[in-house]
From TrEMBL, chains A, B:
Amino acid composition bias (Basic and acidic residues), ranges on this chain: 66-76
Required co-factors: Cu cation
Pfam family name, one: Cu_amine_oxid
Stretches for region Disordered: 49-79
Native organism: Prunus persica (Peach)
Positions of post-translational 2',4',5'-topaquinone modification: Y457
Name recorded for this polypeptide: Amine oxidase
EC number from the UniProt entry: 1.4.3.-
Signal peptide: 1-25
Amino acid sequence: MDTRSFLRFFFLTLCIAVALLFTWAHLPYGPPYASDLLDCSTNSAWCSSKNRLQSKPPSPTRRLRDHASDTPHHPLDPLTLPEITAVRSILSSHALFASSSSHALHSVDLQEPDKSLVLRWHHGDPLFPRKATVVARVDDMSHVLTVDLTTREVTVEDTASHSGYPTMTLEEMTAATWVPLMNADFNRTIVQRGVDLTDLACLPLSTGWYGKVEEKRRLIKVQCYSTKDTVNFYMRPIEGLTVLVDLDTKQVLEISDKGGSIPIPKAANTDYRYSAQKPNQVLKLLKPISIEQPNGRSFTVEDDHLVKWANWEFHLKPDARAGVIVSQAKVRDPNTGEFRDVMYKGFTSELFVPYMDPTDAWYFKTYMDAGEYGFGLQAMSLDPLNDCPRNAYYMDGVFAAADGTPYVRSNMVCVFESYAGDIAWRHTECPITGMQIREVRPKVTLVVRMAASVANYDYIIDWEFQTDGLIRVKVGLSGILMVKGTSYENVNQVSSPENLHGTLLSENVIGVIHDHYVTFYLDMDVDGSDNSFLKVNLRREQNSPNESPRKSYLKATKTVAKTEKDAQVKLKLYDPSEFHVINPTKRTRVGNPVGYKLVPGGTAASLLDLDDPPQKRGAFTNNQIWVTPYNRSEQWAGGLLVCQSQGEDTLAVWSDRDRPIENKDIVLWYTLGFHHIPCQEDFPIMPTVSSSFDLKPVNFFESNPILRTPPNVETDLPVCVAAASA
Amino acid sequence: MDTRSFLRFFFLTLCIAVALLFTWAHLPYGPPYASDLLDCSTNSAWCSSKNRLQSKPPSPTRRLRDHASDTPHHPLDPLTLPEITAVRSILSSHALFASSSSHALHSVDLQEPDKSLVLRWHHGDPLFPRKATVVARVDDMSHVLTVDLTTREVTVEDTASHSGYPTMTLEEMTAATWVPLMNADFNRTIVQRGVDLTDLACLPLSTGWYGKVEEKRRLIKVQCYSTKDTVNFYMRPIEGLTVLVDLDTKQVLEISDKGGSIPIPKAANTDYRYSAQKPNQVLKLLKPISIEQPNGRSFTVEDDHLVKWANWEFHLKPDARAGVIVSQAKVRDPNTGEFRDVMYKGFTSELFVPYMDPTDAWYFKTYMDAGEYGFGLQAMSLDPLNDCPRNAYYMDGVFAAADGTPYVRSNMVCVFESYAGDIAWRHTECPITGMQIREVRPKVTLVVRMAASVANYDYIIDWEFQTDGLIRVKVGLSGILMVKGTSYENVNQVSSPENLHGTLLSENVIGVIHDHYVTFYLDMDVDGSDNSFLKVNLRREQNSPNESPRKSYLKATKTVAKTEKDAQVKLKLYDPSEFHVINPTKRTRVGNPVGYKLVPGGTAASLLDLDDPPQKRGAFTNNQIWVTPYNRSEQWAGGLLVCQSQGEDTLAVWSDRDRPIENKDIVLWYTLGFHHIPCQEDFPIMPTVSSSFDLKPVNFFESNPILRTPPNVETDLPVCVAAASA
C-alpha cells in the first residue's frame, strides 16, 4: 500500500467511524424494544399521521375499546385478550419453553372446534373447550402447539418434516432491518453512495427459496432507502445493495453491492402527505359528499362478531394471517323466512407477488404476503372518513406479540352500508307496449373492509354482501411501488427499453413489472356441507341446413367434477363455462339443484415456468380455480410454513392427490390476478386498481329474492345541511 | 265435410267472430294514433307508473322543461325542438316528400360539422351552419338526406346499394303488433290456446336476415303473450306462434303455429310492481340511505350540454340511436392547469343479442338493438331516487316522431356524483418502518347514466369519470328475460336437459340461453387527433442457470399496429397484453409516449360460426378490440342500415380493408360481452348484472394527478336528520 492509498484508506475508515458514531446518535428511528412495539400496536393514535391538519375526536363508533375483559360468545370468536394472556402463561411454564435459551411465538390463534361441532352449536349453547394453535420457534426449531385453555394442556407437534418456516414476527423483521448497520462494509457503502446513515430506512425482504443457500437456516434480505427530504423513501432506493441476514442469529451473512454507479433518485415530488403539499398546489376538486343514514345503520354486530344485515348473517373476525375471516355466512330465504347456509368460511388464503427482473437485487422478490408477513399483522388501523365512509362500524384485532403479550390493533376492520346510486333491478315499459310501468329498486350493499400495508403496497380487501344473495370479493391495490434505481433519466437514453424490466417513472426510477395473485379459500356450504362442483360448459353446436336457418348456436353441457383434477380450471374466453357449487340432494320446486356460482372478474394467469422455484412455491396460482375436499389442515394455499418453503405443501400438491369431491364437503379456491406494468401515474403513490369476483346464487332461490323490496321515496330520505350552517 | 265437422267449423267461426267483436270493444290498449305516441313521448308523466304508491312532485332538477325556444350553443349540440320542426317543414315542401304516397322519418339527427372544424371551434365563436341527417322511407325506398337548416337545401342520397333498412319507427313497431289481430287464423289460434284477445300483448321482433325470405321487403315477426293477471306478460308466452308481417304493407305474410300443445305459464308470482306485492310479504330490509352533498353539486352543465366536473369537461347529448354520446372529453393537467384531449367521441355503437335456440320460433332472435330499435328511442324517463340518486341532474332527449314532429323524452339521462365509500389511493406505514403515516383519499366519481328498455330487457349504460383520469364504461343488464313456453313443469320430466336450450325457471317457463354484446365506438384523441395503437405484450423469458436463480420472468414487448389487421384483438388470458392508444409525437418529461390504455373487464366472446348469418351481421363481435382510421361514415359497427342487413357494412368489413393506422386519427372499438344462462333468480325480473371496461391514463400524466387532493374531514360533512324529525 503506497502512501496515497494508505491515506485514502485511513480517511475512509475515519469517515466510517464518524458516521457510525453519528448514526447511533441520530438514528431516524430507534431500535425496537418490545414495549415500543406494543405501544405502537396497542395505541391506534400511534399509527395515525402526526401530519394531519386536524385532529379527529374519536366518535362513538371509533372509541378505543378496552379489551381486558373480553369473553368469547361464539365457537369461532377469536382468542380474546385474556385468553392470549393465558396462553402465554401456560406456555411460559411448559418444559419446552422453560428450558429454552430462546423462543418466540410466531402466531397465536384460535383453534377452531371441529366443523361438525360448530355446525351443531346454537346461540345460547355452552362454548366448546377453547384451544389455541400456536406456531413457535424454540431454540431454532419450529413447533406447532395446541394449547387447551381449560385443561392448560399443551400438545407439541414437531415440524422438522416441513421445508418452510413460520410467518415472521414483527419484532424479528424490525430487528433484521438494523443488522446491516452493525456491519462496517455496509456502512461504508452507504456513505460512498452519498447517503447519511441517519437518513436510512431498510426493509426486510423475504428471500424465497432457490436452492441450497436458502435451506436449513432462516434468512432475510435487507435493502435500504434514503429517507432524506421525503417520507416516501420507497422512491429513493440504494440500488443493487442487498444484505443477507440470518434471522435467528441476526448476523450479516453476505453483502451484495452491485449498484454503486446508480444514483439515488431525487426526493422532489415524492412526498404524498397532505401536509407536505404546497398550499397553492392543493387541488380541492370537489365539494363534500357523504353517505348518510338518518335513521341509523341497518345492521347490528352482536357479541362483537356476529353481523346481521338485511337478509344476511355472518361471523366476522380479524386474523393475523388472513386479515379477515368471514364464517357461517347465511342468507334468509324470502319464502320460508329461514336462514340458509351459503359459506362456512371464506378468507384470503395466500398472496403471490413475483417481480419480473432476474437480476441479483430483484430475482428473489416473489412475496407470499400472508404466509411470510402476516396479512392481518400488516393491516393497520383504518382512517375514518377516508378508508371507510362516515357510517362505518369498526372492529379491533387482538393479536399476540412475539413474547406472547397480547396487543390490540384498533379499527382494523370496518363494516358499512354502501350506496353508490346503483340499481338493484329495474324495468320500464316502452311506448311499443303502451303500458305505464316504471319499477326500479336501488342497490344498497354491506361492505366489510380491511387494508393491509405490506411494506410499500396496500391491499384493500372488501367482502360485499348484496340483498340478492350475491357476495362480491374485491381486491384493491394502492400504496407505493417497489422501484429500481437506474442511471437513466430519459427513455431516449435506453437502447433496449424492454430490458429495463419496467417503466421509467421519473428520473432514475424504474417501476418494475410484477404480478399480484390473491388466492381465496371459500368453503362453500350450499344448503349444507355436502356439495358438488358443476361445470356448465357452453359449446358451439352446428345445425344442418334442414334443421334451422341458423348454422350454429351455443349449447350448455353440465359436468359434475368427480375428483380434484376435474376441478383444476384454467379460464378460457373461447371455451367458456360457468362454475357452480351445487347441493345435489336439494332441488328447487321445478327441480334444479340449488347452487352458487363463482363468477370470475378480470383476472391474470401466472405465466412463469412451472419448474421455476417461485412458481413451485406459488403453485396455487397454476390454475384460477381448484376444488378440494374439506380438510381442516388445508387452509393455507402456499402451505402452513411458507417462508423459504419448497412448495411441497401447496394447494397444487394437495389437489394432485385427486381425491373424490362429488357430493362431499368441498372447498372452492379462486385466484384473482393482476399483471402490473407500472406507469407514471403510479408515481409517487398509486391510484387504486381493483378487481373482483362474485359468488352468485344460481337456482338457489325459487325466484328473484328482492322482488318485494320497496323503492326509495323522498319522504324517507334525510334532511341535511352543510356543516358550516349547522 | 260431415255434420259434426261442419258444426265444429261453424262453432269455431262463431267463436272467432264473437272474439273479434269483443276484442275491438275491449282492447287492452288502443291502436296507436300519432297523437297518442306524441302524448306518450312528450309527457314524462305518461311513462311513470300509475301504480306507484306516492306521487312525487317534480323537484327543481326534474321539472318538465319547455324546449320550445331551445337554441344550440355548441357545434355538437343535438337538434333542438325548433330545429326539428324546421326540418319537418323543409322536407314537407321538398319534391320527394310532396309527391310521395307514403313517407316516414326513421331518424332525424344533427349532422355534426367536420371534426376539424369542431376542434378549431371555441366557446363564443359563431356556430357552423346547422345541418340535419335524416333517414327516411319514401314510397318504400330508403334515403339518407342532408337538410341544411340555413339554406333549406336538401341533398338526397339513394341507398339502394345497401341490403339493410333503417331503424324502425316506434309508430310502425307499434302498428305491427296490431296486424295479427286482423287475421282470422291468428285469432282462432289465440282462442284455441285459451287466451282472451283482450289479454293479448304482442311484440315486434326484428327478423334478422337468413336468406331470400328476408330480402327485398321489410319484415317483422310478431309474437304474443297473455297479460291476464300480470303486467309481466313476458312470462306468459303463447309459445310457437310467430306471425310474419310486412312492415310496409302491414299485412300478415305467414303464420307459424307450432306450440299448440304448450300451456301458457301461470301468472302467479310474475308481477314485479311494488303495488302488486302483498303488504305482508313486502321486505323492508333496509333503513334509508342517501348520497348527500350539503354544499351542492360539484359540477355544472353549461348551455344544457357541456358538463364540467372536477378536472373533467365533456359534451353530453342524448341520441336516438346510441342512447348517449360523450364528446370532446378533456381532463385538466394538474401541472399546467390546461385541458388535454382524451376522447373526441364515445358511444354505444351497436348491440348484438343472439339467442341460442335453433327452433322455428327462436332461431331468428339475434337482435341488434341500436340499429334496429334505436337504443335512445327505447330509453325511457328515469325514475328519480331509484334509477339515479337524489343528487342527480337530469337531461331530456328531443327526438322526431315518424311524421317529423318533435317530442321530448324528459329525464332520459342523469348525471350525478357517486361516492360508495371507496378509496382513491392510500398508504399506511407499518410497524416495521416505524413511521407514523396514514394517508387516504376517498374516491368520488361522476356518473352519466341512461337506461334503455328494449322491450323486455333493460340496459343501464354508465359513463363514469374519475379524478385520476380514468373513464369506466359500465353496462348493467336488468329487466325481464325473453322466455320460452314448455310443457315441462319439472326438470325430472326432461330426459335431455341440454336440449331445453335453457333453464326451467318456473313451471312451463324456460329462460333461453343468449349472449349480449355491446360494442363501443371510442374515438380517442390523446393530446391531439393523431395517435397510434400500441400493444404491450407480456411473454415468458427463460433464464439460463448461470444468469439468475430464477428460471423465468415476464418481459414486456411493445408493438405499434401499422394497419387495421394488426389491431384485431382476441383477448387471451395466457397471452396477455395491454392495449394503449398513444400519441407518438408527445412524450412525458422522462420520454414515455403519452397514452390511455383500454382495460378490458370481464367479457365474453361470440362463439357462433363466422358464416352463420347472424354472426356475419354481428361480425363486429368477431374480435373484442378493433382499431380503424377515423372515417365519419364509419360509426355504426353493424352498419348504417341494420334491419335485415347482410353484414356487408360492418366494422369487420371496414377493418379488413387493412388501412394504415399508425400516427393517424384512429378510432378504438371495444365489445363487452355476456353469456347469459338464466337461473331462477332471474324470474320474474332480473337482478342487475354488470360488466365494465376502463380507459385509463398510462404515462399521460407526469405523475399521480390526484396527489394533491385533500382527505375528507368531519367538519366538511353534512349534518343530517331523519325526514320524519325534520
